[in-house]
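Input/output pair, single chain:
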Amino acid sequence: MSIRDALTSDQRATPLVHTIDPGFVHHRKIETILGPSNMGVVDERIKSLPDLPEWQQRVRIDHIYTQALLIVCNKTGIRPLRDILATRTGHMFCSTERLLPCPDIFDKERVVSLWAGDYPQQVEFHYSTRHIASDTLRSRLYSGEIFSIIALLHSADDNKIVVDPLVMGFPWLEAGEAKPDFDIMWFGYDFFENFIEDFDEFSKVNDIPVPSNSEPMKNISELAFKKCLAKILGDSSNKDWGGETSDYYSAHLHMKGQRFKAAFLLKGPHDFRPMSLNHLGKNNDQIVRLSHEPANILFVQHCHDISSPVRETLRAFAVQPSNPRRFCLIDGRDSLRLLYAYNLYDEALSISREKNA
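Output:
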């Protein structure tokens, strides 16, 4: 069941904390990165632990190291893997990624896990199995799965990029100060995706049934949709320019009363077919630029359907364990619902027919 069906709008708006349930922690390398000052804090937290069985003490220490590194990633603006690869800048990343099966995990001391992402060079995670403290993580690395990872880029050539993991584990949610009325443990990877009906300013779409197809959006230009979007949000819509990082930006969006800064990537009917990664520029650079906006929710809107690889790519740029942001995809049918809900389809059609629309 998708998160859209499993949770209500109110539940999806819950302000949860994204962290890592670690099963691999490279203490020595983390100590080097944290430095004496931050390690002093880590040492104090370890000293404050109660008298525990040895196995539980090790688990608590792994969590302390992981949390300290996540805080550093947040404070220093460490970016996700795909951002590092796309911009070719930075030597450290923090993100949630899918790794391919590692058949040697039970037999060898040093192994290589391959990244499942699409990139010209092969991305390899090189690590020692002695740092794996969790049997569950070991078995999932064997079969391949989605993991939250903090890592250093070690080397790169024309054929491959070598990565040294610092922390590997499972994406995990914590309630923080929130009081969720659902079991958050089942949504560690899926959470932070929102849908058009979740936002206060778009709530009238709840009165509009989902159309059977998005064919009427074939007549609505990108500019027309942007002007209607601005009208709903009470903003002005500026013309596009070559150096923009998003097609539209607004600080007037709310979800259950909480204000959000939103950046939108909009795609009109020039290429009226389901959106694939090919719609998003070389190396998905349009999503890269979108992710650099000072926004806490990222939107991708298209006049037609939106493919699963686009959803996964947007999620990878938006949802970091150290700095999770929300994301929303508005496909052609939801775009149509929005225009119908606010009686703007005819106006959008008129704008689209104007010269240079």
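The longest strand covers residues 160-174. The chain has a mean pLDDT of 93.
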